[in-house]
Structure formats: structure tokens, C-alpha cells
Amino acid sequence: MKRYVAIAAVCVAGFLFAACSAGSTGPAKVSFWHIDVQHKDFWQGLANKYTAAHPNVTITITVLDNEAFKAKAATVMQSGNPPDLFQSWGGGVMAEYASAGLLRDITKWVKGTDWGKTMAPGVIAVYSYKGKQYGMPYDMGAVTFWYNKDMLAKAGYTSFPNTWDDFVAMLTKLKSTGVTPVALSEGDKWPGMFWWAYLAMRIGGEPAFDNILSGQGKFTDPPFIQAGQKLVQLSGLKVFEDGFLGAKQADGAALVGNAKAAMELMGQWGPSVEASSAVNKVGIGASLDTAPFPTVAGGAGAGTDVLGGGNGFAVGKNAPDAAVDFLKFVTSVDNNSTLAATGSIVPTAIGADAAITDPLMKAVKGIVDKAGYFQLYLDQFYTPAVGGAINDAVQQIFAGTQTPDQAAAAIQAAYDANK
Amino acid sequence: MTKQISAGFRKKRRATFFLLLLLIGPVFVVFTVFVILPVFQAAAYSLYRWNGLGPPTDFRGLQNFVVLVKDTIFQKALTHNILIVVFSLVVELPIALSLAIIVGRGRLKLAVFFRTFFFLPFVLSEVITGVLWQFIYQPQYGLINSLVKTFSPASHVIAPLGDPSTVFWAILIVIIWKYFGLHMTIYIAGLQGIPSELEEAARIDGASSAQVLRFIVLPLLATTIQITVFFSIIGSFQIFDLIWAMGQGDPVNGAETMVTYLYKFGFQRFNLGYGSSVAVVIFVICLTFSIVYQRLLLRERQG
């Protein structure tokens, strides 16, 4: 009997100790999942540096490949036990987690604080939902045209057109020079969504998207229909590669990287995928340049409005304060600069862009910084159900199996069903 | 005396009971936990609108099924599954059977070589097969287009996987290519079980090769054929990997099947309640078919 009492006493003591340790001053354990396999040493280095300065904190890192992460995340989220800090693209998926109570609200750490001032408000907003902050980004780029200067020059263009009409005229000229004007990897669906989203943004501007969120507007409003009509016009000109409806991202990138196609509309990872998909493994090198999406005559959107997205971390519901503090450390100007110097991200911290050495990444950063209105990729911005419906509808438009009106109605139906 | 006997008998029965418990127990537990329970769980989830996070609360009754049955994409997916069944039965199995008869009875000198050769596609994993055929079909650099360009430079580029009207047929060819070897091997095993005396006797009685095939080989192979028909139909209803690897059932749902539909609209779009209703439909189709098929065969055997 005495023995049991002793055991019980030890248990209680252990429990009290554990309860104490949950406080901010005691030891804390942080589980941290990221998918940046390429720079895993960088992230481990950051953790080592942080734990050296905070000896009471232990950080356990799990490095996962993109697809493996998505599969594993789905499982741990369903079990209701998220990691303390994990890869997130913000937007709709993060919103699903947040509304299920799986994320920790870190608003008080970010809003109006020094940390909150290190990034542009639009960039931070990608990781907020219903006015609350659930994570922070370290990489936020723009979708731009990645084009072959030499091919444009051959068609008589020394600079990239600023308006949609000029742009379409250029595609026709490019076609007559015998190259594929545009590589579009529509087998993956999201590359086509970039086109439709940008056109809707240029035609309807920020209000068109705001109205949808507020319930005053619909996807069947004129900007979205007109965006579809412009895509029909492009399809009619046959400016895309043969079989583009089945092409994967690497297929389209290979066409640009092998100098078979003049351009693609792609995120900041465009050049690196073009290089790795090209036969010569370096792509078209100095012939590559980038330009923002052209404006549409009479449209409400500005040419500086940006469609983009990137990477960041969300904070799990059981995360200790140390996890939030580590996130602050990770996204600091110094550490963001170090990662930016590798040329594979577009840093989010103001001032970290000084560390970018690659001129093309610098250009993308310039485009992001000028953005008055920053729109996250639509398939990330909305819930997965609506995002998927948008991607499907755009592919239908390109395939000619749905009219722009039917496609818009399909998106609106998905939106209504998943409110 | 009688008491002793009955005690011994009881002891023996108890031993048998423990033996059965030992042999069946583990399987029973595993089967219940991993097969039976999930089936009922899925049936329960299918009545909810549920994103898979937290317990399901938004009860919708049969709403998911109503949406599902009306959805033209699901109808398309079901049609594709049925077409795969039909083509497996009228193209794949006859090919497999013919080849088995040619290479399976050891008259051909290179029989062993061909057996292995025809079986090879089945050894490849589904995803590798998908990637491989994507290269073959690739419009710019792929094998087929390179051949076409070599022989007729002026002809159009063919993009079988990039056209909603051809993608299904392009993948169907791969399905047949991949699975005929399995069925052929099962047939060969069946053929080897047929005693050669029967054929010799028929030959002595003056039967032609065609008659031997018709009256001896095929009837004795009937059970094997029934099994391959069963496998091939169930497999056709459940096909996923190959189609997913070759374009995820797209463009424009051109090669959608029920399981790719389930994955896309259930898992990828965080609609696990809806996905469960798709799973229930697939389960019911497969179960109904299994029961009906077994019944029909049993009746045939008894009659």
C-alpha cells in the first residue's frame, strides 16, 4: 500500500512539473515541419542558433517532401494534433484548419508590433483568416511572364507589351516566326488559373474579388466572364503548344528552357524549373527575362496588382510561446536575407531584398513590393473545394468544353455549396 | 464409462475450438478492425457534410448521394469504369487466352521467353507504367511522335493524353497492355493442370486441333476463366493508380473513373463526407456484383 502511495506521489509531482514547464519560462519543446528539402541545413542551422540562445527550448525538425507533407499533414490534422510550426501556403487550406480550431491565434504577437512592421501588410494578410493571424510567410513572390528576349526580338519586340491587345498581337507575330508563342502546362490546371485570375484582376480589379467575399458579387459578374472570353480568344489563335491540355509543369518549362517556346506565365520558381527541365540543365540563361501581366484597356485593375504566393509557417494549436518566438526569429530580416541570398525565394522581410543577387529574383521582388493589391493564387486563396472548381472550370474553357458563362456558373455553384 | 467418453469428447472439442480461435482469431480481428469497421464508418460519414477535421456534425441525410447521382462528372466516371470492364472482357481476356494457348503448352521453342516477356508489363508498378507511357505519348519529344515525324514529317503532332476525347482510349491501351500478362499467366497455370491424356485420347479418336480446343481445353479451363473474369471486373471498378499517374483523369475528366473521382472530390477538396458517399457507391457496386456472380456460377455448377 505504501508503495502505491509513493508512486502516486511521484506521478502528481511529475504532473505538476509538466504543468510548470508549459509556462513561458520553463523548458519548451517545439515540433517544426518544413518542406524545404533543398535548404534543410539552413533550417537546422537556424534551430541550432535559436536553441543556443534559448537553452530551455528544444526544436525537433521534420523535413518532408512536398507531397509527403500534404499526405502526412492531412493525417495529423484529422487526429487533431498538429505540429507546433509547419509549412503553410496560407489562404483557404489554412482557413479550414483555423476554423476547425487547429491553429493558434498569434494576432497579438504580430498586429501593431515590431514584428508586424517587418513585412508589407498584404503579405502578412495571406496568413490571416477572419482578422486573426495564424502564421507568417518567409517567401512571397509574384506570377509573372518568363520570356525569351531573343525570340521577342526576332518578332520585332525589344520590350514586353504593356497592354493585352499589344500582347495578343505579339503572340500572333511570334507564331509567324515559327516558335510556340506560349507554353501552358494546363495538365496541371493551376497554370491556366494564373491566366484567368490575372485577367479577372486586370478587368475587375480588387473590388471584383472583394465583392465575392462580401457576398455582393458573384463569379458570374462581368470581369470573370470577360476573363473567360479572353481565354477563348487566345485558344482560337492556337498560341499554345500541341497537347497543352495534358502538359505537366515540367513539360511547359522544358519548352521554354529548350528555347522552343517564347514564354510561360509562372511563379518565382519558373526559372529554376525551366533550367532543371531543359536538356542542357541550365535553360536559356541570359536570354530569359521577366515582365508583369499586361493591363486590359478599360479595366479597373492596375498593372501593378499582383497575383502571387509563397511559403510560410502556420502555428499549431498546442504550440508553446517559444514556437511563436522561433517563427519571429526565422522571419527576421537577417535570417530572411540569408535564405534570399540562395536565390530560391523572394524574401518577405523589408530590407532582406538587399541580399538577393539574382537580377530576375530582384525584379520579381520589385513587382511584389509595388503591389497595391496582392491576390493569393486563387486555388490557395479559397477553400480547396472552390479552388479545385476554379482550376477545373478554367481547363474547361481552354478545352472549349464549357463557355465562359458555364464555367463561371460552375465556379459560383461550388462557391455557394461550400460557404 | 459414458461420462469418461463424453469428457474426452469435450476435451477434444475444446482443443478444436482453441485451434480454430488461434487460426481464425487474428485474421478475424484484423479483418474486423481494418475492413468491416471502416466500411460502416464510411457509411456513417457519407451522411454528413464533413471536411475531415474534427468529428462530423453537419448531418445531411442522403443529400451527398443525391448530388452524386446527379453529377455529370460522376456519370462520366461510371461510364468509363463500365467501358474498362467491357474492354477487359472482350479484348484483354481473349488476347490473354489466345497467347496462353500459344505459349502456354510448351510446343513453341521460345515459349518460356515469351511467357516472361508478356508478363513483364505486369511486374512494373502502376506509377512507373504511367510515367513510362507519358513519355511514349509525349507530344513534343515522345516516342510515338518521333516515329510519326520520322516517317511523315508533314503530319500533325499527336497528343493522346492532351485531348479529352482521346485520353481515355490512350489509357485503355495501357491498361490492356499492363494486365493481359497477369491473366495469361493464370491461364497458363490452368492449362498445365489439364491432363495431356485427354488430348491424346481425343487425337486418337480423330479430333482436330480446333475440336480439342473447343471440347477439351476450354471446358476444363472454365473455372480459371471465371476467376479471371471476376478479378478483371473488380479490378476495373477499382482502377486508380495508372489513371492518376497519366493525368489524374483529366483533361476535362476525359479519363475520370470512380476512384479518381473519389480522391479528387473527397480528399483533395476536403469533402470527406462526400468522398465517403462515393466510396459507399463503389462498395455497393462491387459487393452486388460479387454476390450475383458467385450465385450465378454456383447455380451453373449445381445445374
Question: Can you walk me through this structure?
Answer:
Chain A has 18 helices and twelve strands. Chain A has 419 residues and is α/β, with parallel strands linked by helices. Chain A has two domains: 30-142 and 308-376, D-Maltodextrin-Binding Protein, domain 2, CATH 3.40.190; 144-306 and 377-417, Periplasmic binding protein-like II (D-Maltodextrin-Binding Protein, domain 2). In chain A, the strands form three sheets. In chain A, strands 1, 2, 3, 6, 11 and 12 form a six-stranded mixed beta sheet that branches. In chain A, helix 9 (190-214) crosses helix 17 (384-399), helix 10 crosses helix 18 (404-417) and helix 17 runs antiparallel to helix 18 (404-417). Chain A is globular, with a radius of gyration of 24 Å. Chain B has helices at residues 2-45, 63-70, 72-103, 111-123, 126-137, 143-151, 167-192, 196-204, 209-238, 241-245, 258-268, 272-302, and strands at residues 48-49, 58-59. In chain B, helix 1 packs across helix 12. The model of chain B has no long low-confidence stretch (mean pLDDT 89). With 303 residues, chain B is mainly alpha-helical. Chain B has one domain (71-302): MetI-like (MetI-like fold, Orthogonal Bundle). Chain B starts with a helix and ends with a helix. The A-B interface holds A 74, 77-78, 80, 93, 96-97, 100-102, 186-187, 189, 241-247, 251, 254-255, 260, 383-385, 388, 395-396, 399, 401 and B 51-54, 138-141, 156-157, 159, 161-164, 167, 247, 250-252, 264-265, 267-271.
